[in-house]
Amino acid sequence: MNISTTNQTAATVGLDLLRALIDEMRLCPKPWAAMSQAQQDEVIERLRRRVLAQVHEAVKAIAADGRVVVAGELEQITIKDGVKAVIKMSQASPHIHELYSSAGSTVLVVVADAKPYTQGMDEVKGEPDQNALALPHEASRA
Predict the structure, then answer these.
(1) Could you tell me the sign of the dihedral formed by the alpha carbons of 16, 113, 73, 61, in that order?
(2) Closest to 6 measured CA to CA, from 51, 52, 53, 61
(3) Nearest-CA neighbor of 52 among 113, 118, 123?
(4) Exposed, middle or buried by CB within 10 Å (0-12, 13-18, 19+), for 84?
(5) Measured between alpha carbons, how far is 31 from 44 in angstroms, rounded to an integer?
(6) How distant, in Å, are the alpha carbons of 19, 27, 35, 61 from that of 47?
(7) pLDDT in tens, 82-123
(8) Helices marked H in the chain — which ranges?
(9) 65: three-class secondary structure by DSSP
(10) How far apart are CA 95 and CA 39, in angstroms?
(11) Residues facing 114 on adjacent strands
């Protein structure tokens, strides 16, 4: 793996994540402790989506390591006399023509799955709402 590509991608991801956090802080209607759990959960969900997108991009960039890449989705794989894979790619992919002109050549298939780097993100939740303490004179009315 090209160390400069890896370091550059890592630096960019850090910057992008920091910018996302700052953007979310600007969008918060009030301080974190003053938000209800539902409001906190909304902020967490927006952050989760942004972090997932950034991690996916970082994994793809690191896996590409400066190579010509055409991303796709593995639709089918058949193992018989050899291995045959069907990969669906966008016609709008920036490097689809390089792939097309490489017919009959050796290609490299790299699995760039971000799931190992996003484990546990769904477990992050806002803080439970705190019920106001009932004052003694209010408790007697209940």
Answers:
(1) positive
(2) 61
(3) 118
(4) exposed
(5) 14
(6) 11, 11, 16, 21
(7) 999 999 999 998 899 999 899 899 988 888 888 888 888 888
(8) 3-27, 37-64, 96-100, 136-141
(9) coil
(10) 42
(11) none
Q: Count of residues for the chain? A: 142
Vertex 132 angle, CA 127 and 136, to 5°: 155
Residue 63 CB coordination number (10 Å):
17
Residue with tokens 């490299």: 108
Amino acid at position 140, single letter: S
Half-sphere exposure (Cβ direction) of 49: Cα atoms closer than 13 Å: 6
Amino acid at 123: E
Q: Judge contact between 14 and 51, C-beta under 8 A.
A: no
Closest CA to 88 of 99, 79, 80, 98: 99
Token code pair at residue 84: 């045959």
Do residues 71 and 56 make contact, with C-beta atoms less than 8 angstroms apart?
Answer: no
Per-residue pLDDT tens over the stretch 38-82: 999 999 999 899 889 888 888 888 888 888 889 899 999 999 999
| 79 φ, ψ (degrees, to nearest 5) | -115, 115
